[in-house]
């Protein structure tokens, strides 16, 4: 009997995708607001709708987590923390049939991976949306008054004088969040590709909406779009090869065919080629070298709140989706992929660390920092092997912790950047002060912001008593446990290099006198400060008392 004979293809558990429906539904409602609400009421309505939808989505995810534990226990499977929320193959014939009968979804899957990722994505999104919604004391936001106008044109000046606001950024951002949530829940390659486009297309547009340096913003968006199109094409070709190798696009069916629990054709050569191409498409989204060329330009040119949103949310979604691929799809050809992944990991760590030292712009510095972090996280991704399944829960919990700690610190750091601006000789407020030398003396001018940035930089560097230290420790421990000691040594050495350019900024903020007095720390409506405070508290809490969060994630798997 085929184990899929017990699956009811008609049944669809709508409650399992309720968080996704809430977020995407709010994006649709926000689009309707843009069409029918008067211009004066749009901003407040969009902010309220967006934050309400994200909060409701987070509450719903927590509810689904409790229901999922009950469902797993009702099936008589393993206890939480022993793999019940993941149930990786190979399983026995009867165990596979029982699990598939209870939990399989043809497009999306609700499991420990997706529920953990949804919590991380929504937490990061709430913090990022507060920064996106904030305005400075000049009543300007980070976004252009009318994105369709040509930079420097009469239409642009008229839009600025009329104090118009590009409130379409809120539904676009909600669609991006929905795409991220679908991305981590996808259980077949076709759904994964659709989710990839849903999260990417809004970001292409949002990257071109910076209020200042509009030409740079539009250039970065065009680079992001073109390289994203190439990566999507490579991903699709890889999916085609995998389909040719197995006759299916379903994660579960691919793995069952590879381990011999389901009859079907299997061509290992096509599977290896397809797996490499699919992984390359995913490596573009995480900014791994040599597929990283878009990252510094987009980080620098995009509106800073969107940069923080992308750096935290998109990377979290992409890494979780890549982890799911490693667990269910590429696991059977891990030996063939191992050399490729080692080259990518070492190159990513080296490029991110060395190039970061050479940067003189803070946004580009953090871009290369994110590339180095991508290399660290890829060590955990590469730890998934068929003969090491007992360690999967620990590896996944460490991965999730790292993504959470890195995400909140990243949103907080970019939130601070939105408040530090240049000022000309006549006292007029200019754009953000992104040149590193302009941050000299910030510790005296604004000690609270400088201290918060210090904590975030310490977390990026992996200094004890911060969330970043625990995240790196867990990832490196997974690497050693899976036999990747050389990669861990490279990662530790690179961490020392990255610490150099982090502490260079610390030295500028606290121990260097400014050459000119042309830096202005803007007061805002307060939403960015709320984000910075929450991110600061979370970064310290994750470093001082990481146990409850780690235990929670372990319990998810």
Can you give the helix content as a percent range?
A: 55-70%
**Structural class, from helix and strand content?**
mainly alpha
Along the chain, the helix and strand elements come as HHHHHHHHHHHHHHHEEHHHHEHH
Mean pLDDT: 86
β-strand amount? under 5%
Gap from first CA to last CA = 29 Å
How many β strands by DSSP?
A: 3
Strand order of the largest sheet: 2-1-3
Radius of gyration: 23 Å
How many DSSP helices? 21
Main β-sheet: number of strands, strand sense, barrel status?
A: 3 strands, antiparallel
Description:
The protein has 557 residues and is an all-alpha fold. The chain has helices spanning 18-36, 39-74, 93-103, 112-133, 154-161, 169-185, 189-206, 214-246, 251-258, 268-286, 294-301, 304-328, 334-357, 362-381, 392-417, 442-445, 447-461, 467-481, 485-511, 527-544, 547-556; strands at 420-423, 429-432, 519-521. It has a three-stranded antiparallel β-sheet with strand order 2-1-3, with no helix packed on it. A hairpin with a 5-residue loop joins strand 1 (420-423) and strand 2. Helix 7 runs antiparallel to helix 8 and helix 12 packs parallel to helix 14 (362-381). It is globular and about 75 Å long.
Describe the protein's topology.
Elements: H1 18-36, H2 39-74, H3 93-103, H4 112-133, H5 154-161, H6 169-185, H7 189-206, H8 214-246, H9 251-258, H10 268-286, H11 294-301, H12 304-328, H13 334-357, H14 362-381, H15 392-417, E1 420-423, E2 429-432, H16 442-445, H17 447-461, H18 467-481, H19 485-511, E3 519-521, H20 527-544, H21 547-556
